[in-house]
Design goal:
Layout (H helix, E strand, L loop, with lengths): L1 H23 L1 E7 L5 E8 L20 E6 L6 E8 L4 E8 L5 E3 L7
Parallel strand pairs: 1-6
Antiparallel strand pairs: 1-3, 2-4, 4-5
């Protein structure tokens, strides 16, 4: 009886740790609905003054496609997004909470 109680307690602890670890995972899905291919995508913490590296690398985010950006760490979940399309036009979305939001870039995000 004692051993089965230990197994139940251990299983419950493992479940709690797993749920807590999953809750800490941060990611952002960025969908391109601009009508143009996105060639660079920068996602930076809103608390920094600089843009981080291009998260697409050598990929192109074609119109209609979605790209998932994964984050690590426990800092602020608020990020700024900058995308540049094939024509050199720049799109911005600022102050995105990656815990609660995904982003769909449209022509309305185009910088003038």
């Amino acid at each position: 009886m004692f051993k089965s109680a230990q197994i139940i307690v251990l299983a419950a602890l493992l479940l709690l740790v797993s749920v807590a670890a999953h809750a800490q995972q941060r990611y952002l899905r960025v969908t391109n609905n601009t009508g143009f291919d996105i060639i660079t995508l920068n996602v930076s913490s809103s608390s920094t003054g600089d843009w981080e590296e291009d998260v697409l690398g050598t990929r192109i985010l074609r119109n209609g496609q979605t790209h998932q950006v994964n984050f690590s760490g426990k800092g602020s979940p608020v990020y700024d997004i900058k995308a540049v399309d094939e024509d050199g036009d720049t799109y911005y979305r600022m102050g995105v909470n990656v815990l609660t939001e995904d982003v769909t870039l449209t022509l309305g995000d185009l910088s003038h």
